[in-house]
Amino acid sequence: MNTKKINRKLEEFDKNYIWHPFTQMKDWIEDTPLIIEKGKGSYLIDIYGRKYLDGISSLWVTVHGHRKKEIDAAVKKQIDKIAHSTLLGLSNVPAILLAEKLIKLAPKGQTKVFYSDSGSTAVEIALKMAFQYWQQKGAEYKNKIKFISLYNAYHGDTIGSVSVGGIDLFHQIYKPLLFDTYKIESPYCYRCSFNKTYPECNLECANYAEEMIKKYADTTAALIVEPIVQGAAGMLVAPDGYLKKIRDICTKYNILMITDEVATGFGRTGKMFACEHEGVSPDIMAVAKGITGGYLPLAATLTTKEVYNAFYGEYKDLKAFFHGHTYTGNPLACAAAIANIDLFKKERTLQKLQPKIKYMTKRLKEFEILNHVGDIRQKGFMVGIELVKDKGTKEPYALEEKIGIKVIKEARKHGLIIRPLGNVIVLMPPLSIKMEELKRLLDIVYVSIKTVTGSSI
């Protein structure tokens, strides 16, 4: 069978057998699937040999590029030793070495690492830890069983993580399955719930959060927040001071603070973790996505000695954390993560990223003149460009207009892979992207938005 026939078969088998995530399969079946076969550096290569810039780091995970020799070598070296061994009743070398590195990197106060396999499970673990912490801390805390989360939040797809989510498009249909949470307004400055403008607003969204936290503190185990950037909501960037104020409020009213660094961690915002921008140390922190540099599924939930000690006791006391995953602390994934973290220091990744962040900021200013670009949000290498039907009224495009999908399909014609969040065009390239590649990426996005929306200048 020749290559062309094989490729046609792959396209046919894909449509026949694969159910794609977050995808309306009717649309998928009516289209020609893009099937990736290889990758190198900032590029993805499909089965026909066509090259595409990876503008979303293969869903926000690729850090140092595809086929990074140091991570390749680490995985190959580990596979010659062992591919998997459970952490239930045993340990393994890569899991130990990685845990030490994570604690050294993490915000001050984190002392323990609990492994899992995805951002959703890392959050699920954080929620269960917070709940059980108060149950075992003393009889006077038994009522602290609820959680506070933000509207527009996205923390994963398991039932617990969906319960603390706040995006109706993704979560509303599952409402009968979910546990109840207290919700606070998110810091969405472009569409402020309080009709105020930063900084004159004096962080009204955080002040409102304090009112809610004060009211429900006695029944609240923890507040969970995506620090600085609410990713899946469309890259909503919190105003300066918001995160620090939320941390102070949680401390004041004696509730735990969980930070979901799944999307924001490992350099995405210009620092290793987003919490560092405001000197915040959470009680529990979830990490995943970029932890292995985009190689293998791995996640971790980090926490403090105070939280850990609530689970420490005699066997008969049944204080253990009864939670685990088959592939927890997988040696292959941990080996990739160690190599990924070592590269940050070896290649001065965060230092080299700063000029690229500045260049992106400068270039994004040019997008403001397009008459259907309503808002541009950026924190480091996390960017959301919100498209609107009417710039003056901020009227959004209707869902059925599929404006985001049309823009990313136009970009694909020019050799760029990006993915929208509704009307928001998301840019999140690998941290290792070269300046000339970044220039090309932004050129393509600009042209694609202008072409699809008919923007005049």
Written account of the structure:
Helix 13 (349-365) runs parallel beside helix 15 (435-453). It contains 15 helices and 18 strands. It has 457 residues and is α/β, with parallel strands linked by helices. The strands form four sheets. The chain has a seven-stranded mixed β-sheet, with helices on both faces. Strands 13, 14, 15, 17 and 18 form a five-stranded antiparallel β-sheet that branches. Strand 8 and strand 9 form a beta hairpin. It folds into two domains: 34-64 and 348-453, Alpha-Beta Complex (Aspartate Aminotransferase, domain 1), CATH 3.90.1150; 72-346, 3-Layer(aba) Sandwich (Aspartate Aminotransferase, domain 2), CATH 3.40.640. Helices cover 37% and strands 18% of the residues. It has helices at residues 3-17, 25-29, 57-60, 69-79, 93-105, 119-137, 159-163, 168-171, 204-216, 242-252, 305-309, 331-346, 349-365, 403-413, 435-453; strands at 36-40, 43-46, 51-54, 110-116, 146-150, 182-184, 220-225, 229-230, 236-237, 256-260, 284-287, 299-304, 373-379, 382-390, 395-396, 416-417, 419-421, 424-427.
